[in-house]
Structure formats: structure tokens, C-alpha cells
């Protein structure tokens, strides 16, 4: 892979990670500032409003940043996710190293901007640390399990391709939002070595349990990959049969899918469905046009040909009701003789020069068959006329 691609990916992750963490940590510090101002003292305990504010800041910041950079770098912004994708073989070793250091540097830049732009007096830091009463083991497993949920959402929504892949940033952002609602009070909800390392570097404060915010997220990424591989081995997509197939997607019938693929010139193009109908699918598989049941089906006009003045219907299956009520495809209808009505039509000189003649398909003798379309008007008194 060209070096330029690695540089572009690294630059994208650097800027994206800095943007994500700057907005998220800035929102967290704003929540703490509002809490402290309302009590005119240092806020040591987060209120429910502050928890919701912080969770929303992190969730929305990741959603927006990932969506912006999704087509450039994939929008990882997390060394734990990079590590899991490298283990899965999605990233090469060289690309993973570039992204890893870009994310760490982006976390430092984000923390520096937050500390430089926002006042810190009477406001607790945005550093991640275990709350009072939370043991090392408890903090480790909280961080590991929450990171595992986050990385698993990346595997299922972004790595595993499906019709909602373009909406992956929404699901991933909501996962981070949910994790913060639970873990932010107990561990600060790191889930990301870049998020924990940046503020620690800028503030010069490394708590003794700082290692948790490195090892636990990486372990969480590993277990998310392990669970994902187990599901793939067991063929998880067979549980809900064909949930992404053409027939199971609601509202779009197979004929529409084929038409769309023909128009788009992409045989594998996928489009969403709204209202599925198994009966219509059965009709299409049997070569019949889909429609209402019994006698309410609309009869379509066949294409007629004239051979020596005799009406010959094209061999097609007419749509109609089941149980013998369908219109027979062998019914014949009177068609006026075109030659007797209009006179014999002779090919023009230009058509003769190019071997063409009026009303003839390629390779059909003029004396044999003349196509007539659309169908002529029917006489109300004539028998065996098709119903509408």
C-alpha cells in the first residue's frame, strides 16, 4: 500500500480523534462547571443531569465525528478498536501502528485544547479515575465489559456489511452513550486509551490505577472479537433467515429489485423494501403477474400478431384468479386484417437498401407475419373478449 495512503489515514485519525475528544471532554467539563456553579462549591458527586449531559456529549461527539470521517479512515478514534481490527485482519500491521499513534496524539491535542480554552477553577478534572469505594478488579471489569460492548457494535454495524452499514455511526454513538450512563460515575468511563492518556499527560496526573485504562480496553476489544468470531462460525445470520435478502425486505418485490439492478447496471445492487408479499413472490416465480386474488385480478393485454389474417396471441401466461378462473393464454380474439384495411404496405427504398421492411421483426418474412400493436378496439358484441 502506498505511503501516501498511510499518511492520509493517519492524518484523518489524528484530526478526527482530536475533534471527537475535544467536543466530548469539553462537554464533560461544561457539565461539571454548571454543577459547581449551581452549588457555589466544587462538585464532587455527579447529578443525574450531569451524567446525562456527559453521556450525551460523548455519544453525539462520536456519532458526528465518525460520520464525518467514516469514508476517509473508518472513524475509529480509539486504539482499542484499532487493536481489535488488527487482530481480525481488517487492518495491516503498518496501518494499525500509524492509526494507533495518530489516535494517541489526537487525544493529547484534544486535552490540551480543553485545558487551554476552558477555566478550571473549582471544577474537577476530566481525567479518568476510579471512584471512592471501587476496587481495582471492579474498575477493570467495568472498563473491559463496556469497551467490549463498544467494539462489538463496531464489528456488527461497520465491519459486517449490511443494508444499514451507512448508519453505523448512529449505533456506535448510542452504544458509547449507554456505556457512559452506567460507567461514568464509577470509572470515568474511559473505554479508550487515547481518552484517558491525553488528559493525564496535559495535567501531569497519572493515578496509580492508570494502567487499567490501557489493559482493560485492549482486553475488551479482544473479547469482542472472540464473540464476533464465534457468532460468525455458528452462522448467526441463519437465525433470522434472509433478513437482508431481496424477498424478506419489506415492501419491495423481487421484480422491482431486478428492474432496479437492470437500470443501475449493477447486478448486486441492494435497495430497501417496505411491504413484503409472499403471494406476489409465488406468482412471479411461476411466471404470473402479481395482483389481487380470485376474480379481482386485472387482466393484461397480450401482444398479438397477424399471420394471414388470423389472430395469433403471443404465448404468455395471463394474470387471473386461481382454481381455473384465470384467463387462458390460448384464447384468440378477432383482429382486423391490416392489409384489407390499409392496403399492402411496401418497404421504402431506404428500407430495401438496408434490408428492412415495415412491421417486420428481424428474420421474419413479410408474407408470413405482421405485428400489430396496440391491440385494436374490440366489438362489444364479439365473443371471447378479454375482461378488464
UniProtKB/TrEMBL annotation:
Compartment(s) where it occurs, according to its Swiss-Prot or TrEMBL record: Membrane
GO molecular function: water channel activity
Protein origin, superkingdom: Eukaryota
Bilayer disposition of the protein: Multi-pass membrane protein
Chain intervals with Polar residues compositional bias: 347-370
Region (Disordered): 271-300, 321-388
UniProt protein name: Aquaporin
Transmembrane segments: 6-24, 76-92, 99-118, 138-159, 166-186, 211-228
Entry keyword annotation includes RNA-binding: no
Keywords assigned: Membrane, Repeat, Transmembrane, Transmembrane helix, Transport
Location, primary (coarse class): membrane
GO cellular component: plasma membrane
Pfam families: MIP
Family statement: Belongs to the MIP/aquaporin (TC 1.A.8) family.
Transport recorded as keyword: yes
